[in-house]
Amino acid sequence: MGMTYIPSTLSEALHLRAETGARPLAGGTDMMVQSKRGIGLAPEFPYPVMIISGLEELRGITKHEDGSVEIGALASPAEIAASDIVPWHVRMAAAGMGAVALRNSATIGGNIGNASPKGDLPQPLILLDADVILVSLRGETKMKLDDFILGSKKTALKDDEIIRSVIIPPHEFTYSFYRKIGMRRANAISKLSLSAAAVVRDGEILDFRAASGASGPKVIRSYSAEAIIRGRRVEDIPEVLDGFLEAWNAAISPHAMPQYRRNTTRRMLSHFLSSIHDGAEAGIIS
Amino acid sequence: MPLTGIDDRVVRVDAAAKARGEARYVCDYTFPDMLYAYMVRSSIPRGTIDSISIPKLPDGYYFISAADIPPEGKNELWMIQKDWRCFAEGDVRYVGETIGLLVGPDRNILKYLLDHVDIKYTEGIPAVSIDDGIACKGGAIVGEDNVLCQLYVEKGKPMSEVFAEADSIYEETLETGFQEHVHLETNAAIVTEEDGKYAIYASAQCPFYIRKSVAGLLGIPQEDIIIRQTTTGGAFGGKEHFPDVLCGPLLVAEHRIHKPIKLVFDREEDMLYSVKRHPSKVTYRTALDKDGNILGIEGLVYYNCGAYLSASYVVLQRGVFHANGVYDFPNTYVKGIGIATNTFPSDAFRGFGAPQTLFAIETHLDHIARKFGFDPAEYKARYFIKQGGETITNGHIVERVMLPEMMKQVVDASGYEEKIRKYPIGSGRGIGISFYNHGGAFTGNGEQAIIKAHARLVKTGGRVRIEVGSTEMGQGFQTALRKIAAVVLGIPIEDVDYDNPDTSLVCDSGPTAASRSTMIVGKIVERCAAEMKERWAEGDFSVEKEYEHPEGHPWDQSTFRGDAYLGYGWGCAAVEVEADKLTNEIHVTGIWSSHDIGHAIDELIVHGQVNGGIAQSIGYASMEKMENRNGYFRQSSMSDYVVPTSMEFPKQEWFLVENPYEWGPFGAKGMGELVFNGADAAYIDAVERALGITVHRIPMPPEDIEEALGNGQ
Question: Which residues pair with B394 in a beta bridge?
């Protein structure tokens, strides 16, 4: 069983991290459950842990001058869902996480760091090309979240680094889609989720992107599949739709995707693109 | 204080303490020098035990196993039979079978010891499904054919004659899955010694059952063990016999250690290593004339009982007795077989065997109706049994049957007629309807021959104490029973006491099961109260009475002929759904129900039972999937075995019909199980209509709906 530390400043936390390798614990909604030992026994971690929930430096949600939004690692899903500066896809995902108690305790840093394929927040963040800011005594590193999450429960976080924040670049979509499918309507772990977005101007699809959650070891974006749609005219969608759906299907991990998830993903993507083709009003496609 | 009227809505007597967190559950109890126990369980579904290696135990720590049962005791728990072993010995028959208990003062050390127990097995090939059991996969577990129990009932002509006359035969097989109780409070018990007797504090439905079940382990009289029910946070049948499986090993440990010992399951243990609802496989062969009229039905009912009998024979009987639904078919032959498998023994669960066959018959009739172009509701209504009608067991329906009135209420309120026109088959929307019943109390003359319930009222000054073994488990019985006594006595409900039972102080009023408490125990209390009221001026005294069986209702338990039940609760439910075309998720958009429970003792409690029973039933049909692969349950937490939340279903519209029952208190019949028995079939009917699919099994989560849609194409 490892030591438990409670740093009071980010600098102290970075020293602890560098010297002991202690893992950051904030809301504990994943780590406490993973290490539970039954009734009457405190969870036991086989590694040192530092409780970082008191670090003010990791709090807050800010909009920068360039329009990007920075979300501190300690921001809870409840805060994110209630923020009017956080992009819609991310707010939707945050609002649909677990139950109220979990949404008040969990953090975006933990949801990313845990790197569960079923995690709710990475999916829309990867759709939006979000960056993650990692901090250590050596300084700050910025990298694409899509590169940071390597696979199921695997990240590129180095032994001396802490997740400081997530930065979402500005965007203005003409059409947006988000759907999480859980085992029930509330308090459910995701068994499938999908985000999609498109920018359409004068009949031309300037941007198109999609992200599948709970579909493989990590969130799936297929830039090559997206490229099949991007740059096309809206009226050409029927022509390229099947090719795109095939390409997306091929991008989905073959093992983790039983027929239901595969077909449902296909139907949702097809629905989103067909709605654009059929001249849906700009905004959210439901 | 104001007097209480039977139709007054009262605040539940247990509500405030539970809402404030003041109620004490087993987990909240501690005693001086209390030790903790952990179960050492089988990690394989079937095999022989070659060796058990326990790490060196520090002072004050114990490993308790079958070897600790004294010579005068036997390694058996007495439920219906005595086949369930307290401790596995020599071989194991299911994953989670109790092998021993680790007992000691520090849970950290116990956990370490538990993690270092090493048991070597020679593994056998497990039989897991009903088909495995029938095929005797891996060799028979029980007898030569794995048949744990069986029975048949017949009515009318021999089926060979009926089939010979038939124009066609509609045959199909319907299956239901495991269901986990998910009582909020997990299983738990504490054993100790008080004044030279063993005392067990347990979260339980049936304190007297525990006493009977475990006394033989030490070869002592039942009276030498006191069972004290602690406030019980839900049960649903999961604490009817299963507490025996905790209390038995605890009693053996106490016999050796003589200190208070506490055993509390965590949620994962409670999901993986506790009893479940019996999975079923029901095949109907229905003889039809050319117009689709039913000439007769032959049914073959299989229940997956797991490795031991527990209550399965009685569950199976109830399944068979409800296999013709609420209908009067001219000819029926139904055979029931309980199959042994290497799964955790299946046991009591709200409905007690009736929900499986009721789902099957309702869905079967839907399919026949649709084949012949009839509306299922109209088709089923032709066969509604009536007062005096012959039951499947050659008995008769005693009470007036109000199904036509109930159907009208539900059809009118739901707009059924309009909706079946508005939503064509496969349109994505659908409304379904079902009819169901539940025989109240024990089968046949069981109340008279087996249980012989007693109840006692004790008057002290102006206060009256109820002394019965019946338990509150969240269903509202402490309120209902106090209300019955208070109203008859003409005193405020606040002046009636009714504590959690202690078997050394109260009468054995029988198990809190079978929807019998209000109907049977309530009636005895009503009779006690009537006498007490007459003698009120006598000062302090008590009145005790025994159950009285209504005359003129023959029953032969050896042939299962006669009046299987003296009164039924009746139900009708309609469920409306909308299917999401993208995801095949089913949204329930309306629920309507009507129930005949005789007369409601407390409408608020009844409302809670109706809402909860229907939600649990639709959960059973839709999302509650408990899989067992190779003997191991796959779902171990409340996030992978999901039960409905308040977000799933809309507000329910519900009705009761007034049909006072002659032998129930204030005309009340049983209702706790009835309200679970039918909404599943209405939901599946609605899903079938919305999507144009034919369903043969529940639960049906979206993945299975996807598959059914694929198969249909």
Answer: B562
CATH topology for A175-284? Enolase-like; domain 1 (3.30.390)
Question: What chain A residue is nearest to B703 in terms of C-alpha separation?
Answer: A260
Domain regions of chain A by residue span: 58-168, 175-284
The answer to whether B264 contacts chain A (CB < 8 Å) is yes
- Supply φ then ψ for residue B463, to 5 degrees: -100, 150
Q: What is the pTM of this model?
A: 0.97
Which of A183, A188, A267 is opposite residue B582, by nearest beta carbon? A267
Best mutation target among A34, A120, A192, A264 (most B Cβ atoms within 10 Å) is: A264
Cβ contacts of residue A239 below 8 Å, gap of 6+?
none
Q: Which of B273, B451, B339, B344 is nearest to B84 (CA)?
A: B344
Contact predicate B280/B304, CB 8 Å: yes
Q: Which of B111, B581, B645 sits opposite A187 (nearest CB)?
A: B645
For B438, the token pair is 């539940």
ipTM for the predicted complex: 0.95
State the number of CA atoms in the 13 A half-sphere of B330 facing the CB: 14
B266–A38 CB contact, under 8 Å: yes
Q: Which helix (H) or strand (E) holds A147?
A: helix A145-148
For A196-226, how does the pLDDT look when each residue is reduced to its tens digit (9 = 90+)? 999 999 999 999 999 999 988 999 999 999 9
Is the separation of the CB atoms in B594 and B406 below 8 Å? yes
Please tell me the CATH code under which domain B280-443+561-712 is placed.
3.30.365.10
Within a 13 Å sphere around the CA of B6, how many CA atoms are in the beta-carbon half? 15
> Taking CB atoms and an 8 Å cutoff, what residues of chain B touch A39?
27, 264-266
> Could you read off the pLDDT of B501-554 as tens digits, one per residue?
999 999 999 999 999 999 999 999 999 999 999 999 999 999 999 999 998 889
The one-character DSSP state at B135 is T
Q: Which residues contact B650 (CB under 8 A, 6 or more apart)?
A: B588, B589, B590, B591
Q: Please judge whether B648 and A260 are an interchain contact, meaning their C-beta atoms are less than 8 angstroms apart.
A: no
Residue in B27, B111, B701 closest to A38 by CB: B111
What are B453-462's pLDDT values in tens digits? 999 999 999 9
The CATH T-level fold of domain A58-168 is 3.30.465
Q: Does A279 contact B at CB distance below 8 Å?
A: no
CATH 3.30.365.10 is right for the domain spanning B31-124+181-272: yes
A189 and B640 in contact by Cβ < 8 A? yes
Q: Which of B401, B475, B575, B579 is nearest to B234 (CA)?
A: B475
Angstrom distance (rounded) from CA B440 to CA B536: 32
Q: For residue B534, how many other CB atoms are within 10 A of its CB?
A: 10
Q: How many CB atoms lie within 10 A of CB B548?
A: 12
A184 contacts chain B (CB < 8 A): yes
CA distance B241 to B245: 8
Helix (H) or strand (E) holding B339: strand B332-340
Phi and psi torsions of A252, nearest 5°:
-70, 135
CATH 3.30.365.10 in chain B: give the residue spans: 15-23+446-546, 31-124+181-272, 280-443+561-712
- Chain B neighbors of A259, CB-CB under 8 A: 703, 706-707, 710
Give me the architecture of the B15-23+446-546 domain, per CATH.
Answer: 2-Layer Sandwich (3.30)
- Is the dihedral angle over the CA atoms B124, B130, B131, B136 positive or is it negative? positive
Which candidate, A51, A45, A42, A64, places its Cα nearest to that of A16? Answer: A51
Dihedral, B182, B185, B189, B190 alpha carbons, nearest 10: 160
| Residues A182, A188 contacting (CB under 8 angstroms) | yes
Q: Where are the alpha helices (DSSP H) in B190-295?
A: 207-218, 243-257, 267-272
